Each structure stands twice: as C-alpha cells, then as structure tokens.
Amino acid sequence: MSNTTKADLDVFRQAMACFASGVTAITTREAGLPSGLIATSVCSLSTDPATMLVCVNKTASAHDVILRTKKFVVNLLSADQVSVARRFASSRGADRFDSAQWEEGRTGLPTLIDAVVVFDCCLIAVHDGFTHSIMVGQVAEAAVNEGRATSCLLWHRRDFARSMLRAK
Ligand SMILES: Cc1cc2nc3c(=O)[nH]c(=O)nc-3n(C[C@H](O)[C@H](O)[C@H](O)COP(=O)(O)O)c2cc1C
Question: Which atom of ligand 1 is nearest to the CA of 57?
C-alpha cells in the first residue's frame, strides 16, 4: 500500500494547513432526520453541466446517507457563522442543526439561512479516494446571498479566519 513515513505525513499536513479554504456545512436528510458534516474539501468541477465535488470521509456519519439519498447541499458559511462549525464539531446527528436556522432547499434538504452561498446538489458520481469518497454533485440550484457575499468563513493554519475583500 502506502510507503509514506510519519515524517512525510507531518510535512504533508503542515503544507496542506497553509491552504486557506472556505468552510462549508454539507447537509442531507433521510427519513426526516437531518445529518451533515463540516467540510473544506469542496470545489467546482465543471460549468456545463454545473458540477462540484466534495470529498467525504467514508467513516463520516453522513457518508452513507448521501450515497443512499443521492442528494446533498453545500452551504458556504459566512464569516460570523463560526458557531455553526463549532456546533457541528461538538455534537452528532440531528443535534448539529440545533444552534442555527435552517430552511428547506430545492431538493427538500436543510439549507442554512444566512449562508453566503447554497448549492443544492444531486449526486451523479462517486469515485474512490482511499479514506474518502469523491462525490460529484450536479448543481440543481445555486443561490448567492448578495448581502453576505463580501466575506466568508475560512479554515487556515488549523484555525478559523475571515476572508477579506480588497478595499477598492
Ligand atoms: C475545518 C474542518 C474541515 C473539514 N473538512 C472535511 C472534509 O472536507 N471532508 C470530510 O470528510 N471531513 C471533514 N472534516 C471532518 C468532519 O467535519 C467530521 O468531523 C467527520 O467527518 C466526523 O463526522 P461524524 O461525527 O458525523 O462521523 C472537517 C472538519 C473541520 C473542523
């Protein structure tokens, strides 16, 4: 299998921590119960069709739910929604949804009110990514919250940060 040493791995982790990534809450729902995870391994894939990919750990509680329901939402957190990320980290299952306000999106899944952007996605492909599944979602609807789109929550050097637009 892998011949990566622990030292290699430490350097890799340190190097990856230098990337600043937007913090998202990926959400889904099955039999009425919401589930989800905080994720930064999220990016656009193609524009025609509009697709994006998310990398989800195979051990995450929402992993198999997304595979079964074939639907998920990517909510990009705003700079003042760090409490949502912390709530997801400190709780499990449907309790993760207690501290913030959610509504139903186009595909009937929980979408975060006051998120910067919400992507409603249908799962159209899944690829093996070792510990993770690379899930490809076709975007059924993308909604930008213009009033909040000047800043978003970032994960950088293992901590939360705010993005800043350059002053014009
Ligand atoms: C800032 C941050 C980014 C994360 N990014 C990802 C990610 O991209 N993919 C992933 O599977 N888990 C990611 N995680 C971990 C998950 O949010 C979650 O803790 C883990 O999947 C365990 O989920 P479970 O308690 O539902 O099983 C991230 C966690 C944090 C705090």
Answer: 11
Strand order in the sheet with 153-156: 21-22, 153-156, 159-162
What residues contact residue 30 under an 8 Å CB cut-off, 6+ apart?
A: 65, 68, 69
Cα 38 to averaged position of ligand 1 atoms, centre (Å)? 5
Q: What is the pLDDT of residue 1?
A: 55
Atom of ligand 1 nearest to the CA of 60: 27
Superfamily of segment(s) 21-158 = Electron Transport, Fmn-binding Protein; Chain A (2.30.110.10)
Per DSSP, which regions of 19-163 are E strands?
21-22, 24-30, 33-39, 42-47, 50-57, 71-76, 102-104, 110-112, 117-129, 132-144, 153-156, 159-162
Q: What does the mean pLDDT of the chain come to?
A: 95
Percent of the chain with pLDDT over 90: 91
Q: What is the pLDDT of residue 166?
A: 72
- Atom 22 (ligand 1) nearest CA: 60
- Ligand 1 mutation pick, 26, 33, 40, 135, max ligand atoms within 8 A of CB: 40
- What phi, psi does 92 have (nearest 5°)? -135, 165
User: Rounded mean pLDDT of 83-104?
Assistant: 96
